[in-house]
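User: We ran a pulldown and think these components assemble together. Before we commit to crystallization trials, I'd like a predicted model of the whole complex to look at. Sequences follow.
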Amino acid sequence: MELKVYVHRVSQPSRALLIFNKMNGIEFEEISIDLTKGQHKSPEFLEINPMGQVPAIVHVDFKLFESHAIYIYLASVYGVADHWYPSDLQKRAKVHSVLDWHHSNLRRGSVLYVLNTKLAPAFGLPLNPQAAAEGEKLLLCALNTIDTVWLTDSGPFLVGAEQPSVADLSLVCEIMQFEFLDEDDRSRILGPYKRVQKWIEDVKDATKSHFDEVHDTLYKFSAMLKQKQKPAGEKSEA
Amino acid sequence: MELKVYVHRVSQPSRALLIFNKMNGIEFEEISIDLTKGQHKSPEFLEINPMGQVPAIVHVDFKLFESHAIYIYLASVYGVADHWYPSDLQKRAKVHSVLDWHHSNLRRGSVLYVLNTKLAPAFGLPLNPQAAAEGEKLLLCALNTIDTVWLTDSGPFLVGAEQPSVADLSLVCEIMQFEFLDEDDRSRILGPYKRVQKWIEDVKDATKSHFDEVHDTLYKFSAMLKQKQKPAGEKSEA
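Assistant: Here's a predicted model for the assembly, 476 residues in total across the polymer chains.
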């Protein structure tokens, strides 16, 4: 296969890349790099991506990492439907603007919060309440920005588009990490942002042929962690 | 003027954008948004960029923010020399990869460290030694990555290019914030990275017709702060 993608389906940009490829009929070989087993730090994988992060790709003999760079490269090489990465320069610029904003805002807030309230022990790390508080602040601010700046009345997707772009995929897959949170916590965080909630459903709907299948590992991993974290008397027999 | 750029020359991405425009003969009107006076939070500027950050542009009636998105938009609209934003898909993908990596690595480390060791009081904020320590760790790791991953033997600029791209401008202008540090601290941080030091000089040299002029405000602002921070007996009469 000329395109190999190295992913872990628990990783949010990995899932976005898988959905992007499947939605666009891009053929690829999926190679699982299990983050919980430290496979991203193996000498073999560091040859593919010296940063030790997923996703990464090898296209024939061209190695690339950073998910946003990968979507853009594949969109150009495989000539996908225009809405994923618009050829119109102003529409494209707005997509870049969202993707660039994402790194230090939604992504940083979400990773800090989810890691430090729930996920850290699964990766052998301690929970850090101070980092969780910083993450929550960033996260709420980022959700407010999506609600009031990136979503507009012109269309259901980011920057007012009629159909989703790679930015919608990247951001919604990030928000799907909230699966790890307790339900009341998730409701508390997303509750005030009705427009964001509708947009998440619109992105799921627009990609429904692949969204749930790609997220199945996340749902199962999250259910397994929740079972582990229950007090002993509440655990099921499974 | 059809292109207005809103910048503050103390801001690293603002300077990168100014150098980019000047190097490429792009005509523009420079509108200064003084961060130390809070002009980035004025209602007038929030109409241009609701995030309240510089740089931002208005091209005819198209508003755009996030510096990387701006370079790419202007490179496409004005048709600049290919090396700034290569048309070759693999070279372009590598430039995107560096730009994406930058947000959570060099930029985050540099901002945390410089702000929390020196710059915070100028913006009415307290110094935070814990944040400075976190920033230093990130920063050293980022400089090591530039030294061992992004700089290669193929050429003097990032990802082995023969001539600079927007990624070189973005990263070097970030590192120029070290002007705010004490000289021994700057030497301690950059000292181990000989290849990075040479690359910084190569980028300055390749943009020398504009680099120092655009950085003049930074040099003066930094000298003024250092004078202020000296113990009373060491201050000059000026």
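Residues 38 and 123 of chain A are 9 Å apart (CA to CA). That may be worth checking against your pulldown data before setting up trials.

User: Thanks, that helps.
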